[in-house]
Design a protein that fits this description.
Layout (H helix, E strand, L loop, with lengths): L2 H7 E2 L16 E8 L2 H10 L1 E2 L11 H4 L4 E4 L2 H8 L3 E8 L3 E2 L21 H17 L4 H4 L4 H8 L5 E4 L2 E2 L4 E7 L3 E4 L1 H7 L9 H4 L20 H11 L5 H13 L4 H9 L5 H15 L1
Parallel strand pairs: 1-2
Antiparallel strand pairs: 2-5, 3-8, 4-7, 5-9, 6-7, 9-10
Helix pairs in contact: 5-7, 11-12, 11-13
């Protein structure tokens, strides 16, 4: 994409809080996410992150209501409010990497307020489809209704918190800036942020220890956006476990996985330490093709 195309397809937050162009497939938008723990920002800086994983939610009702995705906003101030004295990251997201959150009663809740949750995944899907239909048929500006997903455009560009869910994969180098609070908000690049926190031991931190194993990324062999490569997979595993016959062990692991009642779940359970969601499918197909 050349610079002219970039300008035509990129969206920035404006002070009048109104979208100026429809949000279309292929478009990009500058977004922010507030981590209330700097440890999580350090982990993202070192390893990246994925919105395809079940997210640790600050508010418990969101764990079932919007289980996956990183809450982002186009308003930096909103992200800073959610971060508290933590850290905010800034990056560019693609239309295809965003999904609108949805709630049983139509809007998010506040801390301490009772909020119902969806009884099932199907109920959530139905509610989301209804919200999309109502937005398409409602009295909203043409700039919203002309977007490829009007409900997403409405909640991102014309709601109170200008938010959405990032459900893509994010390599560290895509993070443009980090904002840390120390009496005031201080901005740093990825290189500066990594250097500042180079001595932080993630595994010894309390918040890291309390994480579900699925959300710990120290052992990952690829970057979040990287395609799976079988040769690299074996080579990296041999670096970690050089004293074992890796191909023989992978073959034995495939036997266990293939006999499982849920092959996908068994595969993820076995290999989530080393792989990101983007690599799951191709890694499973590679394992079957080479070790059955």
């Amino acid at each position: 994409m050349n610079f002219k195309q970039w300008l035509e397809h990129h969206h920035e937050y404006s002070n009048d809080h109104e979208a100026t162009e429809p949000f279309k497939k292929g478009d990009t938008v500058r977004v922010f996410h507030g981590f209330d723990s700097t440890i999580e920002a350090i982990e993202a800086a070192r390893h990246g992150l994925s919105g395809k994983l079940k997210a640790p939610r600050k508010y418990s009702y969101e764990s079932n209501t919007n289980p996956k995705g990183l809450f982002i906003t186009i308003n930096k101030k909103t992200a800073q409010e959610f971060a508290g004295e933590g850290c905010v990251i800034e990056f560019i997201a693609k239309f295809e990497e965003l999904s609108a959150p949805v709630w049983p009663e139509g809007s998010y809740g506040t801390q301490g307020q009772y909020m119902p949750t969806f009884k099932s995944k199907i109920e959530r899907i139905k509610t989301k489809k209804l919200a999309e239909k109502e937005t398409s048929q409602g009295e909203y500006p043409d700039v919203i209704k002309s977007s490829d997903n009007p409900y997403l455009a409405k909640i991102l560009f014309a709601s109170t918190e200008y938010q959405s869910l990032f459900v893509g994969d994010l390599n560290p180098e895509r993070i443009i800036y980090f904002y840390e609070y120390n009496n005031n908000w201080q901005k740093s690049s990825l290189k500066e942020f990594l250097n500042k926190h180079k001595d932080v031991d993630l595994e010894s931190s309390k918040s890291y220890k309390e994480k579900n194993d699925m959300l710990k990324h120290e052992q990952k062999l690829f970057k979040p956006e990287e395609e799976f490569d079988g040769e690299k997979f074996i080579a990296e595993l041999e670096k970690k476990f050089g004293h074992v016959n890796m191909k023989k062990n992978l073959q034995l692991m495939w036997i266990t996985i293939s006999k499982s009642n849920n092959v996908k779940a068994e595969f993820i359970h076995a290999f989530h330490y080393f792989l990101w969601p983007k690599q799951y499918v191709n890694a499973l197909l590679w394992l079957e093709a080479n070790f059955k």
